[in-house]
Amino acid sequence: MTEPRTFRILYDGDCPFCQSYVTFANLRKAVGEVELIDARERPDLILHYEALGYLIDEGMIVDAGDEIYYKGDAVWAINTLASTNPALKLMGNRRFVKLSYPFLRGLRNGVNRLRGVRSIRSGIPES
Length: 127
Hints:
The protein contains five helices and four strands. The N and C termini lie far apart (42 Å).
């Protein structure tokens, strides 16, 4: 019997789009245990994933235990896992998500700037 997996999703908790998206995806119904983590509250995890080459200000991170998904692949992985939600069908197309993700990230960054929200990494002192 295989162990149940916990999916860890590290996202920008100050981004209204990110907050809505991870809630809307409703992953807990699809995969069970999901750890939704506001990256702004976990500098230790930001540094951990940064050491692995994943920069949180460049995109969300989905850690499925045996594989880490990043940027557009993270969105694709969430949509693949939550495939029971018909509203997310298009975002389950990996190529579409990879092509549209830079635009979505730019939109997030622009909205955060307008709201006066700094980058996630700027809140962590250099070690």
